[in-house]
Amino acid sequence: MAATRGPRPGALLAAALTLPGVVPQAVAQSVPDTGYIQFKYLDYRDWQPGARRMRVENPGLFVLKPLSESLVIEGSLVYDGMSGASPLYFNALSGASGEGVTDYRTAGDVRLTKYFDRFSIGVGVAYSHERDYISRAGSIEVRTWTADKNRTYAFGFAGSADRISADEGAVQGERKNVLDFLFGITQVLSPTSIVQSNITYSRGHGYFTDPYKLLDNRPDHRRILAWLTRYNEHFPSRDGTLQLAYRYIDDSFGADSNMLEVAWVQPLPHGWSVRPSLRYYTQKSAFFYFGPPVGSGLRPGEPYTADTRLSAFGAWTPGILVAKQLDDGWSVDLKLEYYEQRGSWRLGGDGSEGLLPFSARWIQVGVTKTF
Amino acid sequence: MSSSASAQRWACANLKMKALRIVVAGLVIAALGGCASYAPPQAWEKQYLALPAMQFDADKLDAKNIQHVYFSKEGSAGGYGVGGGGCGCN
Amino acid sequence: MAATHEITVDADDAEQARDAVDAAIADVLRIEAKYSRYRDDSVTTAINRAAGLREVAIDAETAALLRYADHCHALSRGHFDITSGVLRRAWDFRSASPRVPDAAEVEALRALVGWEHVQWSGEAVRLELHGMEIDFGGIGKEYAADRAATILQERGIAHALVNLGGDLRAVGGQQGGAPWRIGIRHPRRPASAVVASVDVSDGAIATSGDAERYFEKDGRRYCHLLDACTGMPVSAWQAISVAAPLAVVAGSCSTIAMLLESEAAAFLESQAVAWLGVDANGTLHGTLAQ
After folding, report:
1. Which of A130, A188, A333 to mutate to test the interface with B (most CBs of B within 10 A)?
2. Predicted confidence band at A272 (pLDDT cuts at 50, 70, 90)?
3. A100 domain residue, yes or no
4. Number of structural domains, chain C?
């Protein structure tokens, strides 16, 4: 019991912070107390002037469950039911009348994360299956944080192996393999603000061509460098939160892009909350993209695409999300977003010409239950 | 379109985009500097950070769905995370 | 524990406030039941019944509390000891005619006091000597107050004041910007006088003093705060109040300071907490003394 030295300043406070539940859990550095299950249904429709094109119905389920005080499992299962035609414009579907395709996709993934005192390790697998496309992926993510938990470093690595066979028989057993790397820093700036910046690097080899386009021949490798920065700030006087995101992408296909997104989360009385949002996206065209007429610029053996998704355009997405907290851990949410893509909306001009505007809208309803 | 004219247009667009990129990055950094002072909180001052609106990956299923929509309608994607796997929609 | 427990919430949504308070109260009752030495089915009773016999499996919450008690024991150089409850058998403050025990009685019981006789880990705890007892009373109430504050915040409450028997934890001040105004009772005239007023928006205030349970004999006050090293009540201070970010810290600091007697000021300074002490003569000391 004899003292060899005096108590360290704040030693009791440091000790007290290890007691469970004495302070609210901030950034995700430990296992949540409760799990939850969530069902969402997304109804997507797109069109171009004078023509309806594609419809997707997308139910999905997500579950997160703490398995112990240091282990969490989470997983999702989604189904895409697609019908209609993919962007036409001047493209023609292979063998097509322009009537369209009906396709489905089922995808699932599971991730297990183990938390230690100053770091966590997450391991995940994903599988997706369509009539003509199967993808298998595995990933590992390591996060480590400072003792005061105000800064977190994230390191991620994933690999995916895809197999493509267009069911017209023209394409069989093609593969695409992608390696992804992520490095991210999350920094708490103040009691009411936090910023996260991630760099991801993706290296893909294999079959990138769209088998359903009449004339389409893409390079067999693609490197994408994406830099995403997100910022959240809470304003206690208004009870609201500002969310900002900016992303820059450097793409070896040439479709470099910039994206800016802004949203405001406003809680309302009786458990309601509303989140209006606005996203702007602007993209350069791929170096092998050629505008109408179809086939101009095509040189044998050289990459070529007339796919409008690789053209130069700008796109706006205004949206709104309304949510309501119910009793017993239930909550519901409804999201409505409208999307329009135009060559003329490209930042700085120089958008691809000769394209019709492309519009889409999606509605997503969700139900969540914590347990 | 002749190839030298189109090459010139590419060069101009490149420079414009580069400049634009720097401006936006600068705005973002300035916003970070201006919006909030750098005063990392103590453990007992983090109640606002616990709000779902303040967390980056609060709604994973929504993020999955929405990123998938953008992946199938736009040329490039990424930055949010790794390991989702691929699909035939792009 | 017949003291006032009160949770005050400032909010616009009455339903949300009620739900949050219900959840907070449920957790306070859960902790009280889990660690009460008066309940047959509590963790404390199970551990004490197995003293000198076998080890008892514990969960993460109990292990965390034991770890915290260990810190308190070390920082107080042994004067604060959660095994010192057995001394109650000699010092009976509830009795109608309490008496001062003789030295032999106290020494006999002191043989059963000693944190060094507690073997504990993250999974189990064992009291080595038959007749030993542990008691979470000195930590449990403040721990419950902090948890209640967290539960309220997690349910969207931004302005609250949790008061568990005089151990207070404040969240967000009052709506509109004014802090919660806390009055510290005078230890000798608790019903009528206040020695200081403290404004707290976020943080805790706890008071430890000789007026909670005591008896007086021959002009001398014997209070319930027993020094584990001597087995005797402390007497250097009438009361010490501490303001700290967490109730559990405020509570432990005030109790340890009372037990350290003449070294209280140095200890409180080293923990970087604000405090107010009323010494045996009624003189005010500390950073909160106005």
Report:
1. A188
2. very high
3. no
4. 1
